[in-house]
Amino acid sequence: MTLGRRWSRFCSSTTPDRIIIEPSGVGKLSDVIGAVQRLDNHDVTLNAFVTVADATKCKIYMKNFGEFYNNQIEHAATIVLSRTGGMKEEKLLAAVALLREHNANAPHHHHPLGGTGRQADPGGHGEQGFPQGRAGPA
Asked: What is d(CA 110, CA 116) in angstroms, rounded to the nearest whole number?
């Protein structure tokens, strides 16, 4: 069943304020964005394109999952780095540098469990703390 059909079925039975789509295992983030845009539904607004990247494994994920993983990085407006607790600063900066090769525009945030959070790379933010719309390549 296509995303359009699923969307129509879903919207006929409920009226959510917000829907979160996590594309891993179903397709590329750019494909999901395109499919939602093609729905031509004026009640639907795409807003925050956020990708969560495991800072300890982004290099191996780029190698093993290539196009699909990199697509999520490339089309993110914000990248949240997970598993940063206990990482040495140079390792964190190396992970950010790898991600920057695929998306130089998206700010990178990380928040070790129990920490107050810090931004690995400053950038502009919308009202929710995330830039609105696409930051990656068109």
From this structure: 10
